[in-house]
Design brief:
Layout: H1 2-19, E1 24-26, E2 30-31, E3 36-37, E4 41-43, E5 66-69, E6 74-77, E7 84-85, E8 90-95, E9 98-103, E10 108-109, E11 115-121, E12 129-134, E13 138-142, E14 150-158, E15 161-165, E16 169-171, E17 194-201, E18 207-212, E19 215-221, E20 227-235, E21 238-247, E22 257-263, E23 268-275, E24 281-282, E25 284-288, E26 292-298, E27 304-310, E28 315-320, E29 326-332, E30 339-349, E31 352-353, E32 360-365, E33 369-370, H2 389-397, H3 407-414, H4 423-431
Length: 435
């Protein structure tokens, strides 16, 4: 009976697999003196491995992710263990019948970047024609038509394997600007200041700051979709170093996104694909081994989060940010050895990948100690280490009133910092509420 049922199930599986036109092929069993591989299936793009000390009766694919170990072998499966790279931020500066492109270096994980390709298209989101430019961070596309807008992307490769792609940027080649001649007996010269336009992803409704050569130049607020665009004008011709960082709803700053670009007078330079790394924090500065530690932070809305926990062997975990950009992971510390550890995270959204952000530090030991309360950073208007009705009453008194006296610096430190008390401030208080 069981044999008959097994035969029927096997027949059904054959019909399902081969009737659906699956592109996999069965081969004969093979073995050695120390292992046997039964019912092998060769799948396109598959690899080969060997050992002298294991027996393997399983299947490996990208549908599941994790690590299996024994005393004599280990295997890594799933997309977390495939090579990836950060997406380059790409700048495009128009010239006479040409566009100069500069991009940030892609940072590979489990791979080293060996080359880049530059793509050009006549339409936004259209078909791109790619050209390999080698392992460089700049390129100039010549022979273009002045007055026509072109669109560009950059791809990163590791030994022929495509790992990442930049966001699309555009530029319109222009003829040289001729300064107006002076009249009478004196000469004249025109002033043609340059402009740079920065765009990318941060956190929903977060403050984004731009530093020019180490000095704060401009701030903006990202939209609910995490996207931001900000421009700087009246720039002189020359090289500049820009740093862009975000600030999450708890006041934690991201690691800075730093890049250099040459600005040309009278020309607007577009820089796209800036992807601010997630912030990260933990709820314990020391955790008893075997207990959970909560790893959390903020990133772009509805994005995939990869969390790396530094241990004797690096451990990767997945999380997902919600519409507000918040993400959270309960991590079981029983897999960690005693001692100091760190956690860091990066985000993936829309085919773009951020770099890892600043790490959060913690220790695994024989006792559990909570992290220093972040509530002291926000909401705590009476500075008692809590967020409750006392703080709410203080804020309610100043609701829609002109601020004066001691509440002014406290509003900056503990609330939204925009010089008034409104619903945004009460939303902050609700988030940090302790009762």
């Amino acid at each position: 009976m069981l044999r008959n049922l097994t035969g029927k199930i096997f027949l059904i599986l054959i019909l399902l697999v081969f009737g659906a036109g699956a592109f996999s092929y069965a081969f004969a069993d093979f073995s050695s003196t120390s292992f046997t591989l039964e019912n092998p299936i060769n799948i396109i793009e598959g690899g080969q491995s060997s050992s002298t000390s294991f027996q393997y009766f399983s299947s490996t694919g990208q549908l599941t992710s994790g690590q299996s170990t024994s005393t004599s072998f280990s295997k890594n499966t799933g997309f977390l263990y495939y090579p990836t790279a950060t997406s380059p931020a790409l700048s495009a500066t128009a010239g006479n019948s040409q566009v100069t492109l500069d991009w940030t270096a892609a940072v590979g994980t489990l791979a080293n970047i060996t080359s880049y390709e530059v793509g050009i298209s006549a339409t936004s989101g259209g078909t791109y024609t790619y050209t390999s430019v080698g392992n460089v961070l700049s390129d100039t596309r010549t022979g273009l038509t002045n007055g026509i807008t072109y669109f560009f992307k950059v791809r990163s490769y590791a030994g022929g394997l495509l790992l990442s792609e930049s966001a699309e940027v555009s530029a319109t080649p222009v003829a040289p600007v001729t300064p107006p001649s002076g009249g009478g007996g004196g000469g004249g010269s025109g002033s043609f200041p340059a402009e740079i336009i920065l765009s990318g992803r941060a956190y929903p409704l977060s403050r984004v700051s731009v530093l020019k050569d180490g000095q704060l130049a401009v701030t903006t607020i990202a939209g609910p979709d995490s996207n931001f665009t900000v421009s700087l004008g009246n720039l002189s011709t020359g090289d500049y170093t820009f740093s862009v960082y975000g600030e999450d709803k708890a006041g934690r700053r991201s690691s800075p996104f730093i890049f250099q670009v040459y600005i040309t007078r009278g020309v607007a330079t577009n820089v796209g694909g800036i992807f601010i790394s997630p912030t990260i924090a933990v709820d314990k500065k020391e955790v008893k081994r075997g207990e959970n530690i909560v790893i959390f932070g903020q990133s772009a809305s509805v994005s995939d989060i990869v969390i790396s926990v530094n241990s004797e062997q690096e451990i990767f975990k997945n999380a997902k940010s919600d519409a507000s950009g918040a993400y959270l992971l309960n991590f079981d510390t029983s897999v960690l050895e005693l001692g100091g550890h760190s956690a860091k995270s990066k985000a993936l959204k829309g085919g773009e990948i951020s770099d890892f952000g600043n790490p959060a530090l913690f220790a695994v030991g024989s006792k559990t100690l909570p992290a220093q309360s972040i509530l002291l950073g926000k909401c705590d208007l009476n500075e008692d280490g809590r967020c409750n009705l006392v703080d709410f009453s203080i804020a309610a008194y100043w609701y829609k009133r002109p601020l004066a006296g001691g509440i002014i610096p406290k509003e900056v430190k503990y609330l939204n910092g925009d010089g008034r008390i409104d619903l945004v401030d009460f939303s902050i208080m609700a988030f940090y509420w302790t009762g």
